[in-house]
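Standup notes, protein team

Yesterday: finished cleaning the Nocardioides pocheonensis set.
Today: SDR family oxidoreductase structure.
Blockers: none.

Input for SDR family oxidoreductase:
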Amino acid sequence: MSKYAQPERRPAVVSGASSGIGAAAALTLARAGHPVALGARRVERCAELVEQIRSDGGEAVAHPLDVTDASSVEAFAKAVVADLGDVEVLVSNAGHVAPGIVHEVETERFAAEIDLNLLGAHRLVRAFVPAMVSRTRGDVVFVSSDVAVRARPFMSSYAAGKWGLEGMAHAMQMELEGSGVRVSIVRPGPTWSEMGTDWDDEEAAQVLNGWVKFGLARHPHFLKPAALADAIATIVAAPRGVHLNLIEVNPEAPLQEEK
């Protein structure tokens, strides 16, 4: 096989695969023919998706993954390679957001959220990217957020983490130029997912009202996770010689009624 060609078999890893964008990405990549390894703390949810993928004729495995724990990431990586072989695609999606006002949030909580949303991605990079560089091929896709370019109130640690994530990704794009490893960013706008479902009603209202106040909620439509999964699959499917380095996906506004 030419070093410029993609192999027919391209195993993919998806973190945060138990729900939302991660689950949708795993299903979409499997339908596109990728063997898929699903990782999350709620591994039982991933196991259900694995059964769905296999029943549809795909290949998938699930293993526990806590991206805030280096030993968990290391064990996950070893298990995935043993199951599926060399990993060709890494989708770094694990993340969490909790509401709060910057000067009221405890530093320990702020740090824990940065650890998950930023350092967790770096742990995955350390686990999978060196082998990609050695093989002179691979795709790394970071799932970011539009808060990386348009910070939203009451989500300060999430905004800080995603700003940092995109900074790391852009640096990697330059560092890996010419290596055969493509680093890409998918930047979702407002998306329906389980994020925010653990907030109480008062907290959720405060956050949404803040979005409206600062012009960050121009209309009520939200994306479905499948839209982001399609963007991820498009990046990964690009032929060698093409690098889709950033895709921002936003929900289309509802049609305006005639006056």
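Follow-up from PR in the comments: The mean pLDDT is 92.
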